[in-house]
Amino acid sequence: VQEKKIFMVQGPYPIIRRLLRARGWVEKKPPSTGRQLEQPQPLHSPWPPTEEEEEEEQCDEDPNGIHDLMSYLVRDRVPNFIWADYLSAVDPQLLEQDHVVNHYARVGAFTTKEGLCLSLQNLPWIEQADPNTFFPRCYRLGTMDEREAFIDDFRLTAARGLLKLALEEAGDRLMGTEQPPSSDKGLGWHSSHVSYPMPPAAGPGSLLYPQLVEEALEVCEQHLGVLGHQDIDRGTPFPCRTCIDWDRFLQDYYCVAHKGAGLVLSGAQRERCQDLLRRLAEQLPQFSMEGKLNVWILKPGAESQGRGIVCATRLEEVLRLAQGSTAPSVREGKWVVQKYLERLLTIFGTKFDIRQWFVVTDWKPLTVWFYGDCYLRFCSRPFSLHCLERARHLCNVSVQKWYKMSPDQDPRVPPDRVWSSKQFQAYLAWLGQPDAWHKVIVPGMKAAILNALRSTQDQVGFRKSSFELYGADFLVGEDCQPWLLEINSCPTMSPSSAVTRRLCANVQRDTLRLVLDRKGNPTCSVGAFELIYKE
Predict the structure, then answer these.
(1) Exposure of 169 by Cβ count < 10 A (0-12 exposed, 13-18 middle, 19+ buried)?
(2) How far is residue 81 from each of residues 6, 90, 470, measured CA to CA in Å?
(3) Residue 290's closest CA among 428, 475, 467?
(4) Cα separation of 449 and 435, whole Å?
(5) What spans are recorded as compositionally biased (Acidic residues) (predicted)?
(6) Helical (H) or strand (E) element with 461
(7) Which pLDDT value is given to residue 193?
(8) Which of 181, 198, 210, 530 is the most buried (most CB within 10 A)?
């Protein structure tokens, strides 16, 4: 009591309990649950214990019930340290006092999908940073302006995708090698360049003549004009909402992208395609990752663990799903839609993401610690953009635990679907990219995390005696650039593999070193944590 070493744990955190007891702390049991809170642990773990865990288990032995006795003696005392699942589980009266708590208030500004989407839209007003360089573009469908902006973006991305498909799949089918059907004679479509026969309706295996490509070229040229501020004095709406029949254009694009319909190009069109795509790549930071099939991912704005997330390739499908769901977040209009990374780095043909921990120990001044170890989570089935099932595209452990490994999965994918960052670094070296981890991926993750925090700094509920451990999720592009997907305020500490069993124990140990031991000894070891920012 005199040393202020009374703690309370709310939630399944046996490691935190063991570590604090080993430091001489006494636990105050939550009155509502008492001893029931401490969940029984399995007698036999499938993974061998680490040295730290063996020491902790020895400290956790309580043959004479001494820990229970001490807990009884401090039952009326106020805890000095609280580790809880959520801030709402903590008595508000305790937050008014100078107790250490592992959460801040109002962090939904960056730990919900909707909050992060909105906050990063405001980033350029706060920092000289462009969220499009690290966060896939995202829209809140419950907001009319953003819904319209998404529709415009979807159409523009389809036009770019069509030009990419035209170059990649037209092959040697240049104009002159294919003749339009004679039944179309007399039906003409005119552009400023040349008159073309009107093609038959698009369908699987059919050839689409230059009308579709010509429309995509003109839309992309208009977009380039906007990007270059060439339309600053023009009062015409953009992007080209009325210049073409978008419903018909998208239906024809779907036939090309998803049903195998072919394209033919004139030589002049091929040169224009190449030139336009090159200039667009210089202007659009996400050009290299967006691919050509126009895949988007729809997410409930405030859910977690992959709940309600679906991938879609058709505009009408996205809008229908967002309007027709019965989930609470949808009833409130809180859906977000985000561009899916089509050109991502895979491991043995399988999608993965990175769970990266960091701790904020202060918001005024903002102080951020980055954890030097992380882990990768794999999907259960090979990556494919032509099959959008959850087992291939959502890496969350809470999603993948329901799927068995696919028979056509590469046998080198780990059966527990988890890798350490060291295993990933070895894989990058095998790919011929030995420096990508330290020179591209880690710096990119640090910058993305800091930008997300700075964009929400004025919205978070500041409290001097608090800290919080977060888990950020990243995908990696083909060029090894990391892309931030989301930030979790209560990252799981329940091990799903030998790798996570070791790492989750280590990050909890090092977090206590950082927030407790360092107070009395600023030079003590903080394990794998690195101070990356102090305002």
Answers:
(1) middle
(2) 7, 11, 18
(3) 475
(4) 21
(5) 50-62
(6) none
(7) 37
(8) 210
Which residue type, as a one-letter code, is found at position 420? S
The model's pLDDT over 303-349, given as tens digits with 9 standing for 90+, comes to 555 567 899 999 999 999 888 654 554 444 589 999 999 999 999 99
User: Quick one: three-class SS letters along 111-163?
Assistant: HCHHHHHHHHHCHHHHCCCCHHHCCCCEEECCCHHHHHHHHHHHHHHHHHHHH
| Strand boundaries in 229-281, DSSP class E | 262-263
Taking the alpha carbons at both ends of the chain, their separation in whole angstroms is 35
Look at residues 354, 308, 298, 305 and name the one whose alpha carbon lies nearest to residue 490: 305
SS3 labels along 378-435? ECCCCCCCCCCCHHHHCCCHHHHCCCCCCCCCCCCCCCCCEEEHHHHHHHHHHCCCCC
Q: How far apart, in whole angstroms, are the C-alpha atoms of residue 394 and residue 412?
A: 19
In this structure, the chain runs to a length of: 535
Q: Tell me how far apart the 2 most distant CA atoms of the chain are, in Å.
A: 97
What pLDDT score was predicted for residue 17? 93
Preceding amide of 482 cis, omega within 30: no
CB burial of residue 193 (10 Å; 0-12, 13-18, 19+):
middle
Residue 407 exposed, middle or buried by CB count within 10 Å (0-12, 13-18, 19+) = exposed
pLDDT of residue 43: 36
Fold classification of 113-135+344-534 is D-amino Acid Aminotransferase; Chain A, domain 1 (3.30.470)
Q: Give the separation between CA 530 and CA 148, rounded to whole angstroms.
A: 42
Buried b (16+ CB within 10 A) or exposed e, 275-295: ebbeebeeebebbebbbbbbb
Does residue 116 register a pLDDT over 60?
Answer: yes
Domain parsing of the chain, residue ranges:
1-31+63-94, 113-135+344-534, 137-173+206-340
Q: Which amino acid is at 12?
A: P
Distance CA 368, CA 36 (A): 35
Whole-angstrom distance, CA of residue 121 vs CA of residue 109 = 12
Strand order in the sheet with 81-84: 26-27, 6-10, 81-84, 100-101
Q: In angstroms, rounded to a whole number, what is the distance separating the alpha carbons of residues 103 and 241? A: 46
Q: What is the pLDDT of residues 473-514, one digit of tens each?
A: 999 999 999 999 999 998 999 888 999 999 999 999 999 999
